[in-house]
Design a protein that fits this description.
mainly alpha; flat; two-stranded antiparallel sheet; 2 strands; single chain; 228 residues; 2% strand; 10 helices
């Protein structure tokens, strides 16, 4: 079990993260990640789409002819996104209005179509659903982290407007870290998103490089007695 799902989990969360490694779906990631709640809302919608589309594509993969697979994948994804969009409009209307066009644009997210083509169409339902879930969680984590960074630096708060997702009782979740903070407008604009994402990608690359160096050192240390 671990041999099947372990690599899928590691790929989705870190090694092949769609936002940090594949660099797919950057348009919504950079456009709506100006607050933590906005990033979380779009991330959850994308995760649900990935899980549902991967599961359906895997379930129907033997019935879909090769020459029509991409149009069929897009139709499946579009149907799922439409259902999610209508649900958000009904249950999270204010957040739906803020996210706007970027909810239906999930249909065109290359990360979702790419996972359907590269993984779900070639694997059983179980691994396909786990792959969609892990890729979605990895994407959401980057959205939330980037949103928290931009919100903190841009307006000095964390979890502002939490009630848009969690209801009126969540208004107290909003934390003001800097009183009388005048804000940093550039961080809330698209250039701030590019800079923030670049810093996160750079941090991941540093961590990966250190892990590789540590592993190489351990390997060389273990090899010395064997050659002696």
């Amino acid at each position: 079990m671990n041999e099947v799902y372990g690599p899928i989990i590691r790929d989705g969360l870190w090694k092949n993260n769609p936002a940090l490694v594949q660099l797919l779906g950057l348009c919504p990631l950079l456009a709506v990640s100006n607050t933590t709640i906005n990033g979380l809302g779009l991330g959850l919608a994308t995760t649900l789409t990935l899980v549902a589309s991967n599961g359906l594509v895997s379930l129907l993969r033997k019935q879909i002819p090769d020459e029509a697979r991409l149009p069929v994948f897009v139709m499946i994804i579009a149907s799922i996104v439409t259902a999610i969009e209508l649900s958000m409009n009904a249950w999270f209307h204010e957040l739906y209005l803020i996210l706007g066009i970027f909810i239906p644009l999930i249909v065109t997210n290359c990360a979702i179509t790419g996972r359907a083509e590269a993984f779900a169409a070639r694997n059983p339902v179980g691994p396909a659903i786990v792959d969609g879930l892990m890729m979605g969680i990895g994407f959401t984590a980057v959205l939330v982290l980037l949103g928290a960074m931009r919100e903190l630096i841009g307006q000095g708060t964390i979890l502002s407007e939490a009630h848009l997702m969690f209801g009126e009782g969540a208004r107290n979740l909003s934390i003001v870290l800097f009183e009388h903070y005048r804000g940093f407008l550039m961080v809330l604009l698209p250039p701030g998103a590019f800079i923030g994402l670049g810093l996160i990608v750079a941090l991941k690359n540093v961590i990966d490089a250190r892990q590789k160096a540590k592993q190489a050192k351990l390997t060389s240390t273990e090899a010395v007695p064997a050659n002696a």
